[in-house]
Design goal:
423 residues; alpha+beta; Alpha-Beta Plaits; DNA polymerase, domain 1; Dna Ligase, domain 1; 3 domains; 5-stranded mixed beta sheet; 12 strands; 39% helix; globular
Length: 423
């Protein structure tokens, strides 16, 4: 496998190289949050920058490649990151800035293909199948994509190109940082066979342990197993994983994907009682942040979920998780309305133990169109209009002076990365 294995002669009908039924690119920004911080603060260039995890119980949201050389990784506990990299530069995340740049990146992606499936703020699949006549062969198109992202944002992106989504994702991972890899369909099976089986989607920690016990360590090991044996051992996912191992992944790039939920959460520096003021402040901050993000994307949520992780250890780094959900009478993008639902859920949870983590999620999203209120809804209409004016003012202040410039109830909490569709 090399950077130029794909055939450079485009098919005159489809725009794709001969033998390619589809041309799929996976584009993934390198150390996105950390790279944005370095972009805005050039004095950090070359330093081990670690975003998030300000509190000892927090987690790392992003780490620059200088920090990764010390073993620091995303989702790593802060205390471990500080132990591995005591001289690291720990920076609090700025989600509003990341979202701003993410929108520019999305514009670039959509200028290359009308079929873009975002997975998170910093990565997406692009279907380039019909773009050959305009953009050239896959490697040329991907190179142009990388240049355009750099020109528009000052940031680098790694890209993988393959006939199937799974292989494109693996290639972009292998090409980091600032790389580009492409592979044609004739080389796909040989490329996959020597890779660790955990490279496949759907092979998590538990499945991986079971596969290792069955003598399946490489993707090629899985591809050579009988489908019936795999179904008996792993259930319906067994034959599905075998198909992926053989390079067969029919899933299309889905252009009309919608985000399914938004979420904000943080782990506390110390365990808190359910009635603690600090818990209340954190939940208000989360509710307000969700409201801003919903309004920015012009959507409203009909269901609110409270997530609490109890401080009682279960072993293996696990803790009991308590969730409660509430469906609203009408969808909302108002932080105050979200917080009212959260208070009701907290009372319903009746947690008698200390709390280690708290989060708020918004689900069942709808486009936030102006409401058509009837003649007898005048009081409601006045309240809705007043809240909308207040929220617009708060959003304007946040955009100009930062999210902490104005908050309700002196609320502040370090927030984790947004909750997105599972990758």
């Amino acid at each position: 496998m090399s950077r130029s294995e794909s055939n450079d002669h485009a098919n005159s009908e489809s725009g794709a190289p001969p033998g390619w039924e589809r041309v799929i690119a996976h584009a993934d920004m390198d150390a996105f949050y950390a790279s944005v911080e370095i972009l805005d603060r050039p004095e950090l260039r070359g330093l081990p920058v670690i975003v998030g995890g300000g509190a000892n119980r927090g987690v790392v949201s992003s780490a620059s490649y200088a920090a990764r050389r010390f073993g620091v990784r995303s989702a790593m506990p802060t205390v471990e990151a500080r132990r591995l990299c005591p001289h690291g530069v720990f920076v609090r995340g700025r989600m509003d800035r990341y979202v701003e740049i993410s929108r520019t990146i999305r514009e670039v992606f959509e200028s290359f293909s009308p079929i873009v499936e975002p997975l998170s703020l910093d990565e997406a699949f692009l279907d380039l199948t019909g773009a050959g006549r305009l953009l050239g062969p896959p490697l040329a198109a991907a190179s142009a994509l990388k240049r355009r992202v750099l020109e528009r944002t000052g940031l680098v992106v790694s890209v993988g190109v393959a006939p199937v989504k799974m292989a494109a994702k693996i290639l972009s991972d292998l090409s980091k940082p600032d790389g580009l890899l492409a592979i044609g369909p004739e080389y796909l099976r040989a490329f996959l066979e020597p890779l660790p089986v955990e490279r496949l989607w759907g092979v998590g920690r538990v499945t991986l342990e079971r596969m290792h016990r069955a003598g399946i360590c490489l993707i090629g090991d899985l591809a050579r197993r009988d489908a019936g044996e795999l179904r008996a051992r792993f259930g319906s996912i067994g034959p599905h994983l075998r198909e992926l191992a053989c390079g067969r992944d029919p899933r299309p790039v889905v252009a009309d994907w919608r985000r399914k939920s938004y979420g904000e959460e943080n782990t506390f520096e110390r365990d808190l009682a359910s009635g603690a003021d600090e818990l209340g402040r954190a939940l208000i901050a989360h509710a307000e942040a969700l409201g801003r993000r919903l309004r920015a994307d012009r959507v409203a949520a009909r269901t609110i979920t409270l997530k609490l992780k109890l401080a009682r250890p279960l072993g293996g780094g696990r803790y009991p998780l308590v969730t409660r959900s509430l469906s609203l009478d009408a969808p909302t993008d108002d932080g105050a309305a979200i917080m009212r639902a959260v208070r009701a859920l907290l009372a319903r949870a009746a947690v008698g133990e200390k709390i280690r983590l708290a989060g708020v999620q918004a689900h069942h999203l709808e486009r936030s169109d102006p409401r058509q209120l009837g003649l007898f809804d005048q009081k409601v209409a006045i309240a809705v209009a007043r809240n909308a004016r207040l929220n617009r003012a708060l959003d304007a202040v946040a955009r100009r002076f930062g999210e902490d410039a104005v908050t309700r109830g002196l609320a502040h909490a370090e927030r984790a990365a947004p909750t997105h569709r599972i990758k």
